[in-house]
Amino acid sequence: MGMVSLDNLGAWLLKANGNTSDIAEVAARREPIPHWCVQPSYRTDLMAAGQPLLFWVSGRRHPGVWATGELTGPASWDLVPHQRKLRVPLRLRWLDEHHRIPRPALLADPELAALEVLRQPQAANPSFVTKSQLAAVQQRHS
């Protein structure tokens, strides 16, 4: 996809591993997630309050977009005991199970099949969604 810029940013996409975390239980309880770890890169330097985000849950059980939201600030370093982690503050709106956008539905849409998370599932957070991809997600979600 090349370099990401704010000119073509629709949303950031943050990923959680549904196989190795309790994210399904967190989603079921609709718990807030105040921040999420991201990999330091030029992308994290672009992250700012108010930017839209999609929250992706990978894994065997129902992978896809499970929440929408926005960043509430820039990425910053937290001192976690014995290690530093770059985290971004956020506000999530969990989608009801029937409003989640499953991976097969994304793959079936030509615009959304090109999502970075589908083409490079092992890439580090944050992933990137273009303006036209975000519009296609919002159209499916409405």
Keywords:
single chain, 142 residues, alpha+beta, ph1033 like fold, eight-stranded mixed sheet, 5 helices, globular, PUA-like_sf, EVE domain-containing protein
What do you see in this structure?
By secondary structure, the chain is of the alpha+beta class. It has one domain (9-141): ph1033 like fold, CATH 3.10.590.10. The chain has five helices and eight strands; from the N terminus they run βαβαβββββααβα. It has helices spanning 23-28, 42-46, 103-108, 116-119, 131-141, and strands at 9-17, 35-37, 52-58, 64-71, 76-80, 83-94, 101-102, 127-130. Strands 1, 2, 3, 4, 5, 6, 7 and 8 form an eight-stranded mixed beta sheet that branches. Strand 5 and strand 6 form a beta hairpin. The model has no long low-confidence stretch (mean pLDDT 92).
What order do the SSEs take from the amino end to the carboxyl end, as H and E?
A: EHEHEEEEEHHEH
- How much is the radius of gyration in Å? 14 Å
Beta fraction: 35-45%
- Please work out how many helical segments DSSP would assign: 5
Head-to-tail CA distance between termini: 27 Å
| Count of domains | 1
Low-confidence stretches: none
Write the CATH fold name. Answer: ph1033 like fold
Indicate the CATH architecture.
Answer: Roll
Overall geometry: globular
Helix content: 10-25%
Note the main sheet: 8 strands, mixed
- Average pLDDT works out at 92
CATH superfamily: ph1033 like domains
Number of strands: 8
CATH class: Alpha Beta
- Which structural class should the secondary elements be placed in? alpha+beta
Protein name: EVE domain-containing protein
InterPro entries: PUA-like_sf
Organism: Dactylosporangium matsuzakiense
